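BUG: 3D viewer hangs when loading the predicted structure for this chain

Environment: internal workstation, default settings.
Expected: structure renders.
Actual: progress bar stalls at 90%.

Input used:
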Amino acid sequence: MADTAPAAPQPGKRQGAARRKLLAAAARRFYADGVAATGIDTITAEAGVAKMSLYNNFASKADLVLAYLDARHAEWLDLYRSRLAGVEGGRDGVLAVFDAYADHARFAYERGFRGCGLLNAAAELPAEHEGRAAVRRHKEEVEALLALHIAQLLPDRPEEARSVAEHLAFLLEGAMARAGLEGTDQRVTHARTMAADLLERL
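Structure tokens produced before the viewer hung:
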């Protein structure tokens, strides 16, 4: 039997692999070095792909930044869903949000934990940049998740539930800011204890 011809390349698969490599490289470099300090050449070199591959997958660096922000939030959502699996009730749901933040802080980052990657990136972007709006949406989603769980504890007190959710969101984000400065998840863990105490008093 004659040898079969080699399979034709599959551009979609190649581009999918290149996109994943580029996003992974961007995530490492943006978090470790900052968005502004990280150039396209650095990302493509670390990803091990040609520069043209980046522009085949992303319209611009700004587009890559948006993809990074969405991917990082999706990464946190996966941690949250894992923590939420098997728990019951509003109290444990709230604490799952805090636990997922602590899990993110414990990742093996190249240069250590530097705080929330979304807020770090937003701080570098100009006011009108779409990335800042994306970060705002992601943070609003976290607060909405807190509100959803607190509503289970306060079903007849919707205004108080929203106020408590805002309070806890401030506690969580403040803890992340301090944790990033200190390079450890300890502040987030402490914030979780404070949140649990607050929930007991509702």
